[in-house]
Amino acid sequence: MKVRIKAYGIARDITGGTLDLEFDGQTVAHLRKSLYERYPALSGLASMMVAVNQQYAGNEVALHADDEIVLIPPVSGG
Amino acid sequence: MKVRIKAYGIARDITGGTLDLEFDGQTVAHLRKSLYERYPALSGLASMMVAVNQQYAGNEVALHADDEIVLIPPVSGG
Amino acid sequence: MIKITEKTIDVQKVIETASSLGAGAVNVFIGTVRNHAHNKNVVWLEYEAYEAMAVAETRKIIDDAAGRWPLLGWAVSHRIGTLKPGEVAVAVAVSTKHRKESFEACQFIIDRLKEHVPIFKKEVFEDGEEWVGARPEAQPTAQLN
Amino acid sequence: MIKITEKTIDVQKVIETASSLGAGAVNVFIGTVRNHAHNKNVVWLEYEAYEAMAVAETRKIIDDAAGRWPLLGWAVSHRIGTLKPGEVAVAVAVSTKHRKESFEACQFIIDRLKEHVPIFKKEVFEDGEEWVGARPEAQPTAQLN
Questions:
Q1: Global confidence as pTM
Q2: What are the residues whose beta carbons fall under 8 Å from the beta carbon of C80, sequence distance 6 or more?
């Protein structure tokens, strides 16, 4: 499937910000696999959450083409 | 001995504020005994500390005529 | 800064005084006058302090706190006189490098202050008045059931 | 009030928003920019937020806190953009009837905020920059002895 992804913080620095990604599969797990292949530096982060429609999403969550998908590297507010 | 005593809060209401007290003995314990006789209402308080020269003083502390002696009923700052 | 004052407490000033460039955390406790107590409306409060000793006892508490946590800054201001509901009775602020110690130190200071510092509070209700904590806790018989 | 803002945080406003006439206690946590980190001088910080989700996640934390403690008022304001040492990055205030619960609720909110809310901080030093927490903790080999 094909989705549009936005990234913040160091994930934005690595990916360049907004990107369109085409990958095999339908879930967050598939998305991650494709992302790590394309941007190996992402796997060097202490953590990387994926938010789908403004909710943290586990690997099993199914994606849809018009979902709001955002890469969230380690948070450090406060 | 004879001392001048100041009182705050409810202890002031009971004793009238500044008072001169003459009593037998030299210690805070003797002072208390004399005070409770003269102002029985003081013994109805939840607690009453005696401060001597701006320090909380135990019953064994010896008093001097020119000490700053203050009656401190239950504190309730904050 | 340790202050006993009849004037309105300037909380912003207390915070600024406690702040420090090396600090990452400031914790502030503000005690305000509630509009009711014991299910009665509080019309106003009267605070009085044995001022010289109140300052000295507060200083001891600060010194004690500074021995337990690495304080970078602190300030305590306590109001006396007549206070209406909503007004600030006390403000305590501490700054530290990290946040956990700012919470712990600030709570320690206000807890100790309430136990040890010779300040006295009278609640004035519509139908009477009462020195807070002065009497041994009475069992409110109406609520025993 | 939950606010993500590029403007200087008005701490007094945060406190006022959190205050309540029925409250006897207000606890305030202020996170400020330290002038050094990792033994290096911090020139400035840059904060960015995934704003819509940051507000939603903060709201969840507040709801969670309100289920644990009887909050009478609360406010959270987080700064984004470029911050210099000494500036306020975050302010959290809660008001409650009694003081213990004000400390607990405020600490809960700031602890959770730091763990869950999508806000990102970059430290800019004289000789480089670093996204805070982004990399697994490296063992600083120079300090292993």
A1: 0.92
A2: C4, C5, C6, C47, C48, C49, C51, C119
